[in-house]
Amino acid sequence: MAPSTRSGNPFEQIIEAVLKQNYPDQFRRHIAIGHQLFGSKYIADFVLDTPEGKVIISAKWQQVSGTAEQKLLYEIASLIKIVKESSGQIRKTYVVLDGPGFSKTAKSFLLKQGHVGYLQDGNLVEVLDVANFTARANQKTL
Predict the structure, then answer these.
(1) What is the pTM of this model?
(2) Which fold is adopted by the domain 8-138?
(3) Which of 32, 77, 108, 122 could pair covalently with 116 via S-S, beta carbons 3.0-4.6 A apart?
(4) What is the side-by-side order of every strand in the sheet holding 125-129?
């Protein structure tokens, strides 16, 4: 039997706990907001409401190696599209990733913001690991 890849919910619970501690009553979970690159409705894992605008947080856990890490560039491109079409309502997006299934090269590329050099407006999406996400949240700098 293949190992389960459906481990995202506990990871989302970790992110939710960090948000509850630092941004109580300012975030919502599993919210439809905008449309993905190919037109489907986008369901954000979290939307944080700040005085400066909304922040989308996408939680990506990779339990086992596979092609899911390649799909992150589609996720990033979709988030760029959503921000650009939001008329300034969404100011930033984060992809928070973790898990033992990410290859070292993919994780390194993403955490070094390698997508910025290849995707126009890639700076609208920042990729963080859970430790750096937690540090930013604790400092109230998301």
Answers:
(1) 0.91
(2) Restriction Endonuclease (3.40.91)
(3) 122
(4) 27-35, 41-50, 53-61, 90-98, 125-129
